[in-house]
Amino acid sequence: MRRGGALPAVAAIVVAATAAAYFAPLGDFAAANPLPGQRWMREHTGLALLAFAAAGLLAGALAWQRRGPAERSHDGRAVDRDADGYLDDLRQQVHKIWITGFLDCSLERIVPARLGFRERRDAISGPLRKIGDDEGELDVDVVELFAAPETERRLVLLGAPGAGKTTQLLRLAQHLLSEEDGPVPIVVTLSANSWRLDLPELQHVLSAVRTDQEVDEAVRERRRQAYQARVEDVEKVLDATIDWLAWEISELYAVPQRKVEEWLRADHSPVVLLLDGLDEIRDLADRRRCVRVLSLLRTRLNTGMVVCSRTAEYFETRSHLRFGAAAEILPLSPANVDEYLEIAGDELVSLRTACQRNPELATLLNTPLALTVAVLTYQGKDVTDEVVAQLLTNRLDHLWEAYLQEALPRQRSRTGLRTVSHTDEEIVAYLRKLARMMEDVQQDSVAVNSLDLTWVWRIDPLAGRTATWLYLAAAAVAGAGVAAVAWVQADFAMAWISVLVLAGTAFANLLAADHPLPGQDGRSRMDLSDFVDSRWVLDVTAGCSALIIPPVTGLFAGLCVGIVGGAEALPLGVLPGVLAGLTSAVISLPHRAPGERHRSARSAARMTLWVRVLTGAVSLAVSLWLPSLLITFVWDPAWRPTMYFILVASGVGMWLGGFAISLSGWWSHTSAVRAIVASNTLPRDIDGFLAHAEDRVIMRKTVLGHAFLHRTLQSHLASNTAISRTSSA
User: Fold this and answer.
1) What's the chain's average pLDDT?
2) Burial of 288 from C-beta contacts in 10 A (0-12 / 13-18 / 19+)
3) What is the mean pLDDT of residues 395-411?
4) pLDDT at 437
């Protein structure tokens, strides 16, 4: 909330706590020694309740009115590069992940051709944008393009599929990393699985106010007022975007989120954002929204920014970035292709001769990707007229087919893992099914640890139903056990009350699972549980966040009950809320450790189950043991049996809901893997299969897991075109 908005919120909490203290004296000592004014309040209960209600409503209204984006204390602060050790850690992480792990292993290093650029003035928007035709070819590389004064360190980089956009982006990152005092590049992939901003009001926020003379003055005034009323919404959009970027970067590079926010918001920002894969946001509305948000960021942040996208997908949004310059990577000319093939040597003489005889073939190989795949496929082979005809007919599809036939028998032993025992035909069938599954869920990378029920909705729509039935059976057994004990030790009415409290608490807990937690950057308990991992830490912040809500709810319920039933009934809401909060806090403590995530899926699932079961057992023990302690705070002995069973029922109900939420990531992952293996979509050893495909240079390791060598290969495998076994020789 904004500065100044914390005071009313604190006041609201103080009013509620004071009301609880005055209306709920616990024990004989508090009753015999009343607080100042408490005797008068007992004699004038109605007036006292009205006074507290008015004060609470006023403080709550002020707190609600002042809600909004926070004024960050580090806005505009200069960053001391020498004293900031996290910048050095970030620099090392970027170099390890993207330069050593990606660029140095990229296939396009095989074809180190110098790429040309063409200015695209029609790809950027703004009041100062020149109107006219494109300028033509630019005799610069990507480093010079980014450093040009007219670019203003904000560049849009466009190109056809396989044109080398990501490689050029990483060449720029490599150059920035080589500068000792230069900014640190941060590579972020704008894929569908990472772009999670929910800003439906953005189209209204960005609406311009018309000032045409023909528009009625009153209409113009109303529009102006409406636009000014949305200025606060713009601030919310910007803050939400910066928070999202900081969270993504902190998760990827294992640096504190607060430091990332400080770097992004600094007047002289020490980082440059390199945003790749705008076109990988498949949904057009989401992609358009992303373009608009990035344009807003350009007005707020002083960081350098480069955005990469396919040309067609970028212009499809009909929303252009408000950046300094835009450039499109030009295709390789037939002369470029011939020059490279000539330098490559005798093993590519046949391919070079075929290109000289068929200029259309040279045009087909006009991107670094296509030329690299052709080099790897036809190196040392005779490219006959029949092969050329097939290439010209089926184009990139046939080129990928020929590449697969060449790559599958190859073994480079890069991964160090055992070779899978499948034929080439079986491997191709698995690859096709994997590609279709990835296309169905609109993902360009897959990690075994990240597989969940969202991946198998086409394969098995009923996957996970066994876990659901097991949970319902466990809930029924727990409810029956609590009811039986209450019936034996109390009466039938108490048994029914216990069942209702248990069911209501569990149901409310499950309903609240998707609500954002305080202090968790908009993440809910379901978000914090939706993963499997082999390395864990205790997240005290998450535990405290889960601890806050139930006692506050119980306090409110206790006050409501106390108004009707008197002071003796106040603990009926307060004490169950405290117990529910403690139970939920214990379950929420475990969280995955930062750092490397891509470990063995089996060990991650096994460790996740152990951690969740152990935490659940401790939480259940808390929910069953604490009621005996908490009932000592009930001053009326006649109320203690009733209070005990209500506490047990609420604790067990909170545990049932919380334990189910904490296990949701594990059972979703386990159910998905079982469905994938049972349907023969992938073999049982999924990790080994992905490593095998990586070793054959069909897939590649990414930050998020494994991806196909290129998106065009994924699209080809997912299509209905059968893999031809025609010889490529």
Assistant:
1) 77
2) middle
3) 85
4) 93
Q: How far is CA 484 from CA 470, 478, 496, 506, 676, in A?
A: 21, 10, 10, 18, 42
Q: Tell me the domain boundaries of the chain.
A: 6-65, 85-199+240-329, 331-407, 417-459+680-723, 465-678
Alpha-helical regions (H) of 408-532: 424-440, 465-489, 492-511, 525-529
- Residue whose entry in the numeric block shows the structure tokens 């070779």: 419
User: What is the per-residue pLDDT across 221-245, written as a single tens digit (0 to 9) for each?
Assistant: 555 555 555 556 677 777 878 888 8
- The CATH classification number of 85-199+240-329 equals 3.40.50.300
Contact (Cβ atoms closer than 8 angstroms) between residue 331 and residue 366: yes
SS3 labels along 292-328: HHHHHHHHHCCCEEEEEEEHHHHHHCCCCECCCEEEE
Give the model's pLDDT for residue 199.
Answer: 45
- Greater confidence (702 vs 230) lies with 702
Q: Is 546 exposed, middle or buried (0-12, 13-18, 19+ CB in 10 A)?
A: buried
DSSP three-state, residue 32: helix
Residue with more model confidence, 351 or 727: 351
Q: Which long-range contacts (CB under 8 A, 24 or more apart) does 387-393 make?
A: 387/354, 387/728, 387/729, 388/354, 388/357, 388/358, 388/361, 390/726, 391/361, 391/364, 392/358, 392/360, 392/361, 392/364
Average pLDDT, integer, range 554-570: 58
- Name every residue whose Cβ is closer than 8 Å to that of residue 620 and which is 6 or more positions away in sequence: 652, 655, 659
pLDDT higher than threshold 50 for residue 727: no
